Amino acid sequence: MFLLFEKLADLITYNFFGLDSAGRLGDSVHFFIYDTTKIIFLLSIMIFFISIIRSYFPPEKTKKLLSSYRKITGHVMASLLGVVTPFCSCSSVPIFIGFVESGIPLGITFSFLITSPIVNEVALVMLYTIFGWKIGTIYLISGIVVGIVGGIVIEILGMEKQVEEYVYQISAEESEIEKLNWSDRIDFARAEVKEIVSRVWKYVIIGIGLGAVIHGYAPAKLLAEYAGVNNPLSVIAAVIVGIPLYSNAVGTIPIVEALMSKGVALGTALSFMMATTALSLPAMIILRRVIKPKLIAVFVTVVGVSIIGVGYMFNLII
């Protein structure tokens, strides 16, 4: 299937623009055109089918499911539901408030909030497509484990007092779970494709653009030396660099792909991806509206250390 996108990129880059196939500029432009057409196509197709699955898990149903679980089972269920439920930093505040006012324990709430952006279901399918089932499966399991561990630690530390007082005072009315027929689910999926693609396309283009520059111009030897498997500090550096940035998992995949093509270790590249999606500075600023600085610091520390551990694990086993 990808051969069609490869031929289109060849046609535009080398025939239409007349660029040299052996040159850096031609290499970068080809990477950009190939990845843009491929990822936008995959994104649209996968959002449609995943949205049909997602239609069975509206926020009201998710809250009801999680409110019935406690302890380890609750953390596991929260992380698993985070995989199939849409979440980004812009929706973190209403989701957080909704979960807390529903009586869901704080630790279980964080298990959901941690896993959901890391294991974005659309990006996960793209990981399977681009990097293969082995890497995709390990990434899926790692993201779920990070969410479970992070939520359990926050629960053990008893951080409930670090939530802003007004959150506990909110009393939301119980909303009725809408019943959808098959036609409704198709319409929902179409609307989700239009809405999500219109929201994330700019991050995809930026990510592919950065990936194209890295692919064509970044010095392979330098990156392999400082971000390869043999550098024990590369994973930590990747997480530190990723935190101030903001993107979603879909937008970072082209960067990960380009970094790996230049010799960057897999765990280092994926740690950067996890940190950018789960610990971005904009997301922390938004979350500050509902939680206090101490809990934010604990959240960043716990998740950051977990991501670093995942990065080293990838570097050791892949």
Automatic annotation (TrEMBL):
GO terms for cellular component: plasma membrane. It comes from the Bacteria. It is a multi-pass membrane protein. This is Permease. It is found in: Cell membrane. Belongs to the UPF0718 family. It holds the Pfam family ArsP_1. InterPro entries: DUF318, UPF0718_permease. Keywords: Cell membrane, Membrane, Transmembrane, Transmembrane helix. The chain crosses the membrane at residues 39-57, 78-100, 138-158, 200-220, 232-251, 263-283, 295-314.
